[in-house]
Design goal:
Two copies of one chain form a homodimer.
Chain A lengths: L4 E6 L4 H13 L4 E5 L7 H7 L3 H5 L2 E3 L2 H5 L4 E5 L12 E2 L1 H11 L5 E5 L8 H5 L3 E3 L12 H22 L12 H17 L11 H12 L3 H21 L1
Parallel strand pairs in A: 1-2, 1-6, 2-3, 4-6, 4-7, 5-7
Helix pairs in contact in A: 1-2, 1-7, 5-7, 8-10
Chain lengths: 245, 245
């Protein structure tokens, strides 16, 4: 399901890189390009670098925030240079594992692969929104791929994975079914309201509670059934709070 | 033996692509760049696209012909778009197979991966000098990778193969030992002389004989021992010719 695999570029500085991304995607059969607050788009440099992939560029969608761009996705993978030290841990996938995971889950809903700004990469807060991180194995002395090259390699691995999967005629659904990001957001809202109802969060001093809880649930990745169960628990907690108020 | 794997670019039109090639190579641990008659080099566009890989660019060697650039290599693989129809057949390797073959044979002598001019690719006569052809699996409706992207993907596959080979600690030599291109060239000279000595080739009308023989031997890929044996046969034939003259 290559059409369900979305490439998201955040805050792209050089419009030419957007064109190169479109071309790299089309050479590997991908068509869904989303741009979060690019510096300049549409732009002639983007068109000229896209070459025969102008159709991908023309269909590209613009968003103000990453949250909006991933709202209907069930899986989000962020790209990162391996050398970066994180203050939090996420499973790190190789490019090959990343491709297999995206392809497998794209059978039931859109999935996203996210690239950060050219020189800075993804910020910590963007990386926290991702279920997994991926990094391209490279020369440890000079792992500095430009963003167009990184997109080309990852799209190539996705295409290779799709050929393998075609060969295996492997059409069964993945075992777990995961909620969409927008469903998770509704859960977080519900969680925050409930925690306020039960006075765990004091409205004037919310502190870091929700940030920490989001980090935890994002890493734990609840399945649809588990999320429904959690929602049930919240409803019960809210009922209890109302009775006692 | 990544340092024994040579990337050769022929008649490059845009100097920026030479810089991108150097960067792509260095990110994957390759350092040996050879340029055959580039349109313009050195060039500022090459330097700026090379970014942190200026050292690879500065060590790049210039050649007038492909023959000179591959003379000390034992294996030459040419890149090609799968769609091209050839008047001759060569084994076609996937990018992954190409990487494994280059890496395996690079343990004993230099090996080369050759890229043609940006829009035209390798000419038929250049492709004929190659033992194998390789093509990157891509979208059949738009398989148009730019040369920098193609170099990036193939260098990435080579780097991946080298990591695998490190893991397996696989240090045995490949089973066959192949002659260098310059040794083959000496054989072809010897062959032509001998065929002239025995009047198979008439000096005024050489015809296509040598072209066809080169094509045959290049495809057959004689090992060192076999080439020595063939040289022995030629010596014997020449002795016979002299006796009878």
């Amino acid at each position: 399901m290559l059409q369900n695999i979305r490439i998201i570029l955040i805050n792209t500085f050089h419009p030419g890189n957007i064109g190169s991304a479109a071309r790299a995607m089309k050479t590997m059969g991908l068509i869904d390009l989303c741009l979060v607050s690019p510096k300049r788009f549409p732009a002639s440099e983007a068109n000229s670098m896209a070459a025969g992939a102008l159709d991908v560029l023309e269909k590209a969608r613009l968003f103000d925030t990453l949250d909006e761009a991933i709202a209907d996705c069930s899986l989000v993978i962020g790209t990162s240079a391996r050398t970066r030290t994180h203050s939090f841990s996420r499973p790190m996938l190789s490019a090959e594992q990343c491709a297999a995971q995206l392809l497998s889950e794209s059978r039931q809903s859109p999935v996203a692969l996210v690239f950060g700004q050219e020189t800075m990469g993804l910020t910590n807060s963007e990386l926290e929104k991702c279920h997994f991180h991926t990094s391209i194995d490279a020369n440890p002395d000079y792992p500095v791929l430009n963003v167009a090259s990184a997109i080309q390699i990852l799209c190539y691995e996705i295409h290779k994975a799709s050929l393998k999967s075609d060969c295996a005629d492997n059409n069964e659904k993945p075992e777990q079914e995961y909620p969409l990001i927008k469903e998770l957001e509704l859960f977080y809202e519900h969680l925050e309201t409930t925690l306020t109802d039960i006075d765990f969060i004091i409205q004037q001093h919310p502190g870091l509670v929700m940030t920490r809880l989001r980090r935890f649930f994002n890493r734990a990745r609840p399945e649809v059934k588990e999320l429904n169960m959690l929602r049930g628990i919240l409803v019960a907690a809210q009922k209890t709070a109302k009775k006692n108020s």
